[in-house]
Amino acid sequence: MPQLSNISAEFTDRAMDVVEQTLLAADWACERSEEGMIHCASMTKWGEFGGMFAWRDEPASLNFSLTLDLRAPNAKQSAISDLLRRINERLWLGHFDYWNDEGVAVFRHTIPMLDRIAPDPGEIAAVLQAALDAADQFLPAFNFVVWAGKSAEEAVAAVVFETHGEA
């Protein structure tokens, strides 16, 4: 009978192989760490964003996070909390958190891996696209709140404005 730790390692390796292949196909830079995580990065219209995929055994899941470096003053924490609530209401996939100690906003999404060995490449591609779309759309809102002194309501209104048709 195979040991549980060997089975878990095999699941992790297969899942991370799918993640790595999907990242490379999407032109993301990526590298596996000795701990089995995959660190990745992609260029966006606001610069390069770094991300990470990590496997968790209990419950079996694959977590993705994409970091937006803000370095907000502590006095802005209440406004950032309000902004996160307003942004997260608009996201279908994933959500943003703010990590005070590191001064970063983080887009996060977890894919449950119950009863299967690896994620579907389409799942990984969808999470990557959702993260980039959310970061591209909402990074300006974070900056409006943190650096321009706008309210969360004003910041979200400014970034969700969409034009229809042609002028």
Task: Describe the structure using short key phrases.
disordered N terminus, 26% strand, alpha+beta, 167 residues
Kindly describe this structure:
- With 167 residues, the protein is of the alpha+beta class.
- Helices cover 42% and strands 26% of the residues.
- The chain has 4 helices and 6 strands, in the order H-E-E-E-E-H-E-E-H-H.
- The protein has helices spanning 4-25, 77-88, 121-147, 152-160, and strands spanning 29-32, 38-44, 47-56, 61-69, 95-99, 104-112.
- It has a 6-stranded antiparallel sheet with strand order 1-2-3-4-6-5.
- A hairpin with a 2-residue loop joins strand 2 and strand 3.
- Helix 2 (77-88) packs parallel to helix 4 (152-160) and helix 3 packs across helix 4 (152-160).
- The chain is elongated and about 50 Å long.
State the share of residues found in helices, binned by percent: 40-55%
> Helix segment count?
4
Please write the string of helix (H) and strand (E) elements: HEEEEHEEHH
Poorly predicted spans:
1-7
- Please give the radius of gyration in angstroms: 18 Å
What kind of sheet is the major sheet? 6 strands, antiparallel
The class by helix and strand makeup works out as alpha+beta
Relative strand content: 25-35%
| Separation of the first and last Cα atoms | 69 Å
Query: What strand line-up does the widest sheet have?
Result: 1-2-3-4-6-5
- The tally of strands reads 6
Shape call: elongated
